[in-house]
Design brief:
Layout (H helix, E strand, L loop, with lengths): L4 E5 L2 E7 L15 E7 L2 E3 L7 H9 L10 E10 L3 E5 L13 E10 L6 H19 L3 E6 L8 E6 L8 H29 L14
Antiparallel strand pairs: 1-2, 2-8, 3-4, 3-7, 5-6, 5-7, 8-9
Amino acid sequence: MEPIETIEYKGFNIEIYPDEDPGYVPSESGDCSLFLVHYHRDFHVTMDSVVTEDEIAEWYRGNKKIAQEKSYHIFPVTALIHSGVHLQLGDRLEYDPYMGFDTSHVGAVLVEKKYWSTRKKAQEAAASLIREWNCYLSGQVYGYIIQDFDDLGGSCWGYVGDYEEEGGPIDAAKSEIDAFIKDKKAEHFQYLKNAIRGGVSLNYRKPFAVK
């Protein structure tokens, strides 16, 4: 597989790849403080240990409060399901090219009040989770490989979102290179100290080299 981008940094090449097997699904970590549920035959996500499909259906109908509302902020989720899945927080899509025929209103995000006490903060957390899900569903998960970097491994995967954004795989790879060079400089400094103590002539002292 060819990298989608290669960046040269301090003598190393950072190659960016799509992560075709992230090995995780958002909300499947078992974390019950912030999670999505959705009940559509083409996109089915559950957390029955906290809330069931019947309870979410009751909540949508608004006939009565469900027990989970004591502990959770609950936000409706709308899904556009057409050659893929796109989620949006709220009870309707901002733009629906299919005029409702491919939209689903059987999902919700639950945000635990214990950790997000205000509804505003809870909504921000819910929106962040929906963004993570959309990146996952659209294949925006990436990893990096640093070429000629065998000493430290030089690869990491599972970065969700735009790979060029702050904190993404490019930043992570650069930080790994910086740490590697720092360690190499420390090793060389110790070598020079030992060489000086041992009386090694300047002509025979090894110059600093990263690779």
